[in-house]
Amino acid sequence: MTDLPKIVVTGASGRMGQMLCQTISQSNACTLVGAIERAGHDWIGLDIGVAMGGADMGVIVSDDALAAFAQAQAVIDFTVPEATIEFAAIAAQARAVHVIGTTGFTDEQIERLEPASRHSVQVRAGNMSLGVNLLTKLTQMVAKALDEDFDIEVIEAHHHHKVDAPSGTALMLGEAAAAGRGVALSDVRDAGRDGMTGARKRGDIGFAVVRGGDIVGEHDVMFAAAGERIVLRHMATDRVIFARGALKAALWGQSRGPGQYDMFDVLGL
Ligand SMILES: NC(=O)C1=CN([C@@H]2O[C@H](COP(=O)(O)OP(=O)(O)OC[C@H]3O[C@@H](n4cnc5c(N)ncnc54)[C@H](OP(=O)(O)O)[C@@H]3O)[C@@H](O)[C@H]2O)C=CC1
Ligand SMILES: O=C(O)C1=N[C@H](C(=O)O)C[C@H](O)C1
């Protein structure tokens, strides 16, 4: 029997769920011990490797999150907000590290995650990649250096299956830009322009959203002034970058006490 940290993946049939199961099964730093899907899902009872169209991984897809989490040290969860809130409570019961990649939470839903973090380590980020977390720090620095003569716009593009907008990453970048300027994003956020919007308000942080095809995830932060523009850009071309970041967070969390953390903590940024 191995002593490596045992990990469960929720939403195992999803785009990120499958990428995570593959990444963990190829890692020599941890072991995949569980794959969770909704009750009634076609994959329940199948081996996750076989369900994905590959070789047997020795892990049967189940809808029993409590039983799976109880035998694991970490849970990696890229699903939907209401499911993640339920998984947070179960991870707390099992004292398992809960890595949350899910996006699209309302403020009220984010508050509902907090009680579980009194008993377990929660690492949550709208983007788990090293590149985007670095871009977020750079965004804060640039926003701090420039005044409101520079209009800040966050432009994001994703595949046509994505259900939330602006993306979790775009909101992270907007928060960082607002923090750089010393304001609250909620006071300056300008999302969803359509029709007779009136002229742009000085100091606002704007968001623009593209959805199409199989775009993995692209984010620009534009600082536009009279006569010049600065654009900071990240382009994801493979979901494995998010899975690697999530795995790093799951391992990092093993030596932390209960509480809420983000990828800046994990990456030391
Ligand atoms: N933080 C980051 O770095 C990243 C975050 N994301 C975020 O991760 C989330 C998932 O993205 P993606 O994989 O593309 O989406 P998918 O729709 O492909 O996958 C979501 C999975 O969650 C499952 N699911 C939904 N509800 C439950 C439930 N109650 N119990 C168990 N499983 C459930 C879905 O099953 P079913 O289809 O049957 O409903 C599906 O398998 C999104 O919020 C996305 O924005 C994505 C990439 C990177
Ligand atoms: O849904 C996705 O695909 C992605 N979601 C995250 C987000 O909302 O920012 C991260 C990444 O861009 C891919």
TrEMBL record:
<keyword id="KW-0963">Cytoplasm</keyword>
<comment type="similarity">
    <text>Belongs to the DapB family.</text>
</comment>
<keyword id="KW-0520">NAD</keyword>
<dbReference type="InterPro" id="IPR000846">
    <property type="entry name" value="DapB_N"/>
</dbReference>
<dbReference type="GO" id="GO:0009089">
    <property type="term" value="P:lysine biosynthetic process via diaminopimelate"/>
</dbReference>
<keyword id="KW-0220">Diaminopimelate biosynthesis</keyword>
<dbReference type="GO" id="GO:0016726">
    <property type="term" value="F:oxidoreductase activity, acting on CH or CH2 groups, NAD or NADP as acceptor"/>
</dbReference>
<comment type="pathway">
    <text>Amino-acid biosynthesis; L-lysine biosynthesis via DAP pathway; (S)-tetrahydrodipicolinate from L-aspartate: step 4/4.</text>
</comment>
<feature type="binding site">
    <location>
        <begin position="125"/>
        <end position="128"/>
    </location>
    <ligand>
        <name>NAD(+)</name>
    </ligand>
</feature>
<dbReference type="InterPro" id="IPR036291">
    <property type="entry name" value="NAD(P)-bd_dom_sf"/>
</dbReference>
<comment type="subunit">
    <text>Homotetramer.</text>
</comment>
<feature type="binding site">
    <location>
        <begin position="11"/>
        <end position="16"/>
    </location>
    <ligand>
        <name>NAD(+)</name>
    </ligand>
</feature>
<feature type="active site" description="Proton donor">
    <location>
        <position position="162"/>
    </location>
</feature>
<keyword id="KW-0457">Lysine biosynthesis</keyword>
<feature type="domain" description="Dihydrodipicolinate reductase C-terminal">
    <location>
        <begin position="131"/>
        <end position="267"/>
    </location>
</feature>
<keyword id="KW-0028">Amino-acid biosynthesis</keyword>
<protein>
    <recommendedName>
        <fullName>4-hydroxy-tetrahydrodipicolinate reductase</fullName>
        <ecNumber>1.17.1.8</ecNumber>
    </recommendedName>
</protein>
<dbReference type="GO" id="GO:0050661">
    <property type="term" value="F:NADP binding"/>
</dbReference>
<dbReference type="GO" id="GO:0008839">
    <property type="term" value="F:4-hydroxy-tetrahydrodipicolinate reductase"/>
</dbReference>
<dbReference type="InterPro" id="IPR022664">
    <property type="entry name" value="DapB_N_CS"/>
</dbReference>
<feature type="active site" description="Proton donor/acceptor">
    <location>
        <position position="158"/>
    </location>
</feature>
<dbReference type="InterPro" id="IPR023940">
    <property type="entry name" value="DHDPR_bac"/>
</dbReference>
<comment type="function">
    <text>Catalyzes the conversion of 4-hydroxy-tetrahydrodipicolinate (HTPA) to tetrahydrodipicolinate.</text>
</comment>
<feature type="binding site">
    <location>
        <begin position="168"/>
        <end position="169"/>
    </location>
    <ligand>
        <name>(S)-2,3,4,5-tetrahydrodipicolinate</name>
    </ligand>
</feature>
<dbReference type="Pfam" id="PF01113">
    <property type="entry name" value="DapB_N"/>
</dbReference>
<keyword id="KW-0521">NADP</keyword>
<dbReference type="GO" id="GO:0051287">
    <property type="term" value="F:NAD binding"/>
</dbReference>
<feature type="binding site">
    <location>
        <position position="38"/>
    </location>
    <ligand>
        <name>NADP(+)</name>
    </ligand>
</feature>
<feature type="binding site">
    <location>
        <position position="159"/>
    </location>
    <ligand>
        <name>(S)-2,3,4,5-tetrahydrodipicolinate</name>
    </ligand>
</feature>
<dbReference type="GO" id="GO:0019877">
    <property type="term" value="P:diaminopimelate biosynthetic process"/>
</dbReference>
<feature type="domain" description="Dihydrodipicolinate reductase N-terminal">
    <location>
        <begin position="6"/>
        <end position="128"/>
    </location>
</feature>
<feature type="binding site">
    <location>
        <begin position="101"/>
        <end position="103"/>
    </location>
    <ligand>
        <name>NAD(+)</name>
    </ligand>
</feature>
<keyword id="KW-0560">Oxidoreductase</keyword>
<dbReference type="InterPro" id="IPR022663">
    <property type="entry name" value="DapB_C"/>
</dbReference>
<dbReference type="Pfam" id="PF05173">
    <property type="entry name" value="DapB_C"/>
</dbReference>
<dbReference type="GO" id="GO:0005829">
    <property type="term" value="C:cytosol"/>
</dbReference>
<feature type="binding site">
    <location>
        <position position="37"/>
    </location>
    <ligand>
        <name>NAD(+)</name>
    </ligand>
</feature>
